[in-house]
Specification:
single chain; 118 residues; mainly alpha; two-stranded antiparallel ribbon; 3 helices; membrane
């Protein structure tokens, strides 16, 4: 099994968990897209920088037979699936565990929800 196949399984599982969390918490994709996009962009940039530094310094390398052969600098393309999965799995687990929807747009409330009597 190649790294690409393994990565595909993890990405599909991450997408499924993320979709379940959005549905359970009744969050719209539009509500969380800016925060999720920014998170993913930062993780991808950090991965590109640090993977290239670590591979370039000889800390590790990959067997080229298990890779697609596409690289971003020295980092194989498959390495970028991990930040993608993390950007989906971490908030999904947070929401499913009962954490707040702080990345989402505020939901409208009625005067009865504020706790004030009027």
């Amino acid at each position: 099994m190649s790294f690409a196949h393994l990565s595909l399984f993890f990405m599909l599982g991450s997408l499924a968990l993320f979709a379940v969390a959005l549905r359970v918490r009744r969050l719209g994709l539009r509500d969380i897209a800016p925060a999720a996009g920014l998170t993913l962009a930062v993780l991808l940039v950090l991965t590109a920088v640090f993977d290239n530094v670590m591979i370039g310094s000889g800390l590790f390398d990959y067997n080229s037979q298990t890779l697609l052969g596409i690289r971003v600098g020295l980092a194989p393309l498959e390495d970028f699936s991990y930040p993608f999965c993390a950007a989906l799995v971490v908030p999904a687990l947070w929401w499913l565990a009962g954490g707040s929807d702080s990345g989402a747009a505020p939901k409208p409330t009625s005067p009865h929800d504020s706790g004030k009597e009027g």
